[in-house]
Automatic annotation (TrEMBL):
This is tRNA 5-hydroxyuridine methyltransferase. It comes from the Bacteria. Pfam families: Methyltransf_3 (PF01596). It catalyses: 5-hydroxyuridine(34) in tRNA + S-adenosyl-L-methionine = 5-methoxyuridine(34) in tRNA + S-adenosyl-L-homocysteine + H(+). Gene3D superfamilies: Vaccinia Virus protein VP39 (3.40.50.150). Catalyzes the methylation of 5-hydroxyuridine (ho5U) to form 5-methoxyuridine (mo5U) at position 34 in tRNAs. The gene is trmR. S-adenosyl-L-methionine binds at residues 45, 75, 93, 121-122, 139. SUPFAM superfamilies: S-adenosyl-L-methionine-dependent methyltransferases. Belongs to the class I-like SAM-binding methyltransferase superfamily. Cation-dependent O-methyltransferase family. Keywords: Methyltransferase, S-adenosyl-L-methionine, Transferase, tRNA processing. Its EC number is 2.1.1.-. It comes from Enterococcus hulanensis.
């Protein structure tokens, strides 16, 4: 199903085009996967977020990574290839169609030993994980971010980073709820609740970036 939020830029379109076309492109099979996803409208992270994530991982060098929302396995594969064989990626998804595609992509990229795919509801699986994880990437149902946040913080190492994708709902997250289509109001409320917590909690440090549909970086205050 076409995701309308993928096609509503939140920054100047000329700048967006530059970020997506002029920054270093991915090579090999991973680059082919990214291109195929964009051609078919599959909701993977946009290229400006790809480049940022590569940079962040290079600086942080996490060894134990958790992802919530596997989709076709693109971002998990990106993290695995960026970090090398010493890093282990655990990724969670509940949709059988996506799980099957992700497994095929992990096999094609030779990442089966590096990436562990957990199948099922994140709400159930997260409580059974022990961690700690040096880096957590959450890109799942937007209305569930606030629900998953406590478990993510429990699993996050003291100096770890939680990165959350798609937080601005195509730039509509700050609009009055009366202006939001009824089908999107639950997401609107939950995203606002999530943003209130991560930006105001004295226990957290966070920054928000206009990459893709918005990215939040969150760490725990020691």
């Amino acid at each position: 199903m076409r995701n309308e939020m993928m096609y509503r830029p939140i920054i100047n379109e000329d700048i967006l085009h530059y970020l997506r076309t002029e920054q270093k492109q991915l090579a090999g099979s991973l680059g082919d996967l990214e291109e195929l996803a964009h051609e078919n409208g599959v909701p993977v992270i946009p290229h400006e977020t790809v480049v940022f994530l590569q940079f962040l991982l290079k600086q942080k060098q996490p060894k134990n990574v958790l992802e919530i929302g596997t989709a076709i396995g693109f971002s998990a594969s990106l993290m695995a290839e960026s970090l090398g064989k010493d890093a282990k990626i655990t990724t969670i998804d509940r949709f059988p169609v996506m799980i099957e595609k992700a497994k095929k992509n992990f096999a094609k990229l030779g990442l089966e030993d590096q990436v562990t795919l957990l199948e099922g509801e994140a709400a159930d699986l997260l409580s059974n994980l022990e961690g700690p994880y040096d880096f957590i990437f959450m890109d799942s149902a937007k209305s569930k971010y606030i629900t998953f946040l406590p478990e993510c913080l429990r699993l996050l190492s003291d100096d770890g980073v939680l990165m959350v994708d798609d937080i601005f709902q195509a730039g509509t997250v700050l609009q009055p709820i009366e202006e939001i289509p009824r089908k999107n109001r639950a997401i609107h409320r939950k995203l606002n609740e999530f943003l209130e917590v991560v930006t105001k909690s004295p226990e957290l440090t966070s920054t928000l970036l206009p990459l893709g549909d918005g990215v939040a970086l969150i760490s725990k205050n020691k």
